[in-house]
Design a protein that fits this description.
about 80 residues, mainly alpha, about 65% helix
Length: about 80
């Protein structure tokens, strides 16, 4: 899982974090394996309080939203828990 640190590390700024998270969410949400797709929801849940709300809404939430119609019931259930 992603461990977010409160310290500043050279080369790893907010922009880098946001780009990395978006890249992983893009990769995970359409993966053929259930475990990879569900990690998109876990990623959004984990970073929700750590990143800017505009980034969360504009760049990450669309990936999670697409999983609301996933064929696997457990993914749809976890999506519902994410947005409640």
């Amino acid at each position: 899982m992603i461990q977010l640190k409160e310290q500043n590390t050279p080369g790893f700024d907010q922009r880098w974090l946001e780009d990395s998270l978006e890249f992983k969410a893009r990769e995970f949400h359409t993966h053929e394996k259930f475990a990879q797709r569900i990690h998109t929801l876990f990623l959004v849940q984990k970073v929700a309080g750590k990143v800017d709300h505009r980034f969360l809404n504009d760049r990450l939430f669309d990936f999670a939203l697409k999983l609301a119609e996933d064929p696997v019931p457990n993914i749809r259930f976890n999506f519902a828990k994410l947005v409640e």
